[in-house]
Amino acid sequence: MAETTEGNIPDVDRSLQETGYTGGSLTSKLEEKYEDTDTWLAIKAWLDSQKTKSVVHVSFGSEAKPSQTELNEIALGLELSGLPFFWVLKTRRGPWDTEPVELPEGFEERTKERGMVWRGWVELLRTLSHDSIGLVLLIAVWERQLKLSGLLNRWWCWLLCTTKD
């Protein structure tokens, strides 16, 4: 379990610093580019209720899809970590994908007090720029795009590298 800060909330930033996994967080300038949609307002309300740098953001986009085994392991890790999380979950890569992945039975019920699973599209850069995000799990292509755009400043990330068709 991660070290804790006041209120017994895990300090993702401090505990991961010791392991050497570094990244950055996005700047707040992104707010100027977006309109407040119902989707964003629902997501923002949940993120606003979390402590700064405490939320694990999980998103693999619409092209990469973890295997069912990988998805189960990620879910188990989130559940056992005790950390709050925001998971943008795509269960299939499109209508042609005949093998959707599913969360383990009961996962959402067991984690509903500290996690949000979002099955729709999100404004990824806007969501990642929120102050509550402290750890990011994403596909490698996003990490490169964020670095090239100059938006990377300071968050922790783990990259899923996939070559699946």
TrEMBL record:
The terms under GO molecular function for this entry are: UDP-glucosyltransferase activity
Q: Where is this region: Disordered?
A: 1-23
List the signal peptide residues: none
InterPro entries cross-referenced by the UniProt entry: UDP-glycosyltransf_plant
The family annotation for this protein states: Belongs to the UDP-glycosyltransferase family.
| Protein name listed in UniProt | Uncharacterized protein
